[in-house]
Structure formats: structure tokens, C-alpha cells
């Protein structure tokens, strides 16, 4: 029996204390509660979520391996700071990995997936018109949902880490820009969806790569 595809917009359920700590810290990095350069203390986080420091330290090591935290001897962990070159590189890597993910995703595209993507685009459009910063969350969900159709767990872990590393900077950009989302962005997302319906894996791969490259070119820190 073929396993039905399912993607969750929420963080996965925490089966261990380490996983709970990891998800807690990850969410706060994404939302900018922990800013780039902030020093994180295991004892403070342990008190916040009522657990011992050991799972927090394990979560620190995991987030460090993903490039989201920097570990220094006798100084603990701090949120990774990205410079202009780092951000440019992340967009370059995203273009390659997300393009690959979409090429691999084509066989798993169907009417149910298409309907879900259309709903996500509607949420993005509504948030854009309202000037709501949650557009960034809906945007991440759109990209991650599309890419997750590739059904490659290692590839998806890398893509999610890249999105998380960028999100605090995108939130600052969104807040300080008069018109952060141009009309072309919505059109490009619609075109990607139409390309998925067309079923040409290499055309879709190229389209996603161009979309991400175009996006990075319009950001002030790239």
C-alpha cells in the first residue's frame, strides 16, 4: 500500500527532552526572539522550559552542527551572526538545493498537493495585502511544503536549516521596509506552481533557482 504524503506546518512532536529543547530554541531563533550574536545560557533556558541543563547542551551541539549556533570554549553558545557574504552564499546554496528538491518532487505532485499549495498562496497573498509579517511564515511553509515532496530527509534538513538561518534577517528587513514584497514575488510563486503542474522536472528546477536568485538580488543585505 502506497504511503500517503503528509507535511506538518508545526514543529514535530518532542519525543525526548533534547528534542523539546531543540524545537524551543529553533523556534525562537526563527522568530527573532534570540537575535544574531545573542549569548544563550543553558541554565536560563532550562528554567524557562523546566528541564535540566544536559538536554539544553545537547540541543546546543545539534544547532551548532546545523550552523545556527556558535560554540566557544568556556563561553557557551551564541546565535550565529551572518555577514553580507554569508547571506549571499546561503541564497546560492538554497537555489541549488531547492531546485534539486523540486526536480525530485515532480513524481509526487498531485491534485491534493496542488490544492494545498493554492491555499498557501492565498494565505501569503492575504498577509501581503495586510502588511502582516506572518507572510514570512507562510512563505517558508510554501517553500518547505514544495521541497518536502522530494521525500529526501537529509536534503530537507539542510533546506530547513538554511531557512532558519535567514529568517531573523528577513524579519528585520520586513519590519523596516515600506514595501518589502513586490508584485513579482506572488507572480513567481504562481508560475512555480503552474510549472509543477506541467511536470517537467528540469524546467521546475531552473525556475526555482531563478526565483531564489532574483529574490536575493532585491534584498538590501545581498
From TrEMBL:
Give the keywords, sorted.
DNA-binding, Transcription, Transcription regulation
HTH gntR-type domain location, by residue? Answer: 15-82
Superkingdom as given in the UniProt entry = Bacteria
What the entry lists under CDD domains is as follows:
WHTH_GntR (cd07377)
Q: Does the keyword RNA-binding apply?
A: no
Q: Which PROSITE patterns is this protein grouped with?
A: HTH_GNTR
A GO molecular function annotation here is: DNA binding
The name on file for this protein is GntR family transcriptional regulator
Question: From which source organism is this entry?
Answer: Halomonas salipaludis
Amino acid at each position: 500500500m502506497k504511503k500517503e504524503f503528509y507535511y506538518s506546518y508545526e514543529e514535530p512532536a518532542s519525543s525526548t527532552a533534547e528534542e523539546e529543547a531543540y524545537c524551543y530554541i529553533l523556534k525562537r531563533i526563527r522568530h527573532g526572539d534570540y537575535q544574531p550574536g545573542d549569548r544563550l545560557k543553558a541554565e536560563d533556558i532550562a528554567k524557562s522550559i523546566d528541564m535540566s541543563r544536559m538536554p539544553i547542551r545537547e540541543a546546543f551541539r545539534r544547532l551548532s552542527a546545523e550552523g545556527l549556533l556558535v560554540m566557544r570554549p568556556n563561553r557557551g553558545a551564541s546565535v550565529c551572526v551572518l555577514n553580507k557574504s554569508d547571506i549571499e552564499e546561503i541564497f546560492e546554496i538554497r537555489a541549488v538545493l531547492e531546485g534539486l528538491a523540486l526536480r525530485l518532487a515532480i513524481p509526487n505532485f498531485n491534485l491534493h498537493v496542488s490544492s494545498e499549495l493554492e491555499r498557501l498562496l492565498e494565505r501569503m497573498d492575504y498577509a501581503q495585502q495586510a502588511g502582516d509579517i506572518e507572510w514570512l511564515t507562510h512563505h517558508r511553509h510554501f517553500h518547505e511544503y514544495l521541497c518536502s515532496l522530494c521525500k529526501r530527509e537529509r536534503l530537507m534538513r539542510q533546506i530547513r536549516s538554511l531557512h532558519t538561518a535567514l529568517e531573523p534577517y528577513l524579519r528585520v528587513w520586513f519590519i523596516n521596509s515600506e514595501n518589502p514584497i513586490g508584485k513579482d514575488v506572488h507572480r513567481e510563486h504562481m508560475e512555480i506552481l503552474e510549472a509543477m503542474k506541467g511536470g517537467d522536472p528540469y524546467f521546475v528546477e531552473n525556475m526555482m533557482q531563478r526565483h531564489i536568485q532574483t529574490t536575493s538580488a532585491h534584498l538590501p543585505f545581498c
